[in-house]
Fold this protein.
Amino acid sequence: MLAILRAATGYGVTLLGPLRPITPSRRRPGFDKQDFRIDWEHHTATCPRGVTSPPWKETRLDGQPGHWVLFPRAACRACTDRLSCTGNVDGKGRHLILMPRPLQGVQNRARVEQETPHWQARCAMRAGYEATVSETVHAHGLRHCRYHGLAKTHIRHVLTAAGTNIVRLGECFPPGTTPPRPPRPLTPFQRLCQNTTCPPGS
């Protein structure tokens, strides 16, 4: 989310990429984080059944600041949707972990958008160049440059891309001119079958 926010606010670029899905513990019928109404001014959250939490506490999420929202146990125990909402059986109240307001808004919007056919069609275009980027990184050392300065690094990237195209073109042959390949060696099971004879009538 931080990368999406920085790209939008710092460079005016819409960064397209899938977010991590909801954790397996939340994949059940019930209320998700987007179903709660967040009061950023009073630091509280209200569930779909109208219960408002006490002011949240500050916490850390992967080294970044966040908010820990805990609903009262008594209110959650009396709720008919408790089991589907909290997923626990020991009577604890529902809790939420919120990111800072700008990041939380980015996450909410992105998770809604990535379920739409339009977003999925746009993201599908990444399949073509993700493999190319992976090849240049792992096979041709794209992330390591022996030169200093943007101009020299840019030339290095251009030459790496050109070399990648040459390698790929070298693996292409006109129809009907593909050179013959040696047959694959037999597997141990195939060799065993060749060396084993079945008795007559078996």
User: Anything to note?
Assistant: The chain has two domains: 2-123, 128-170.
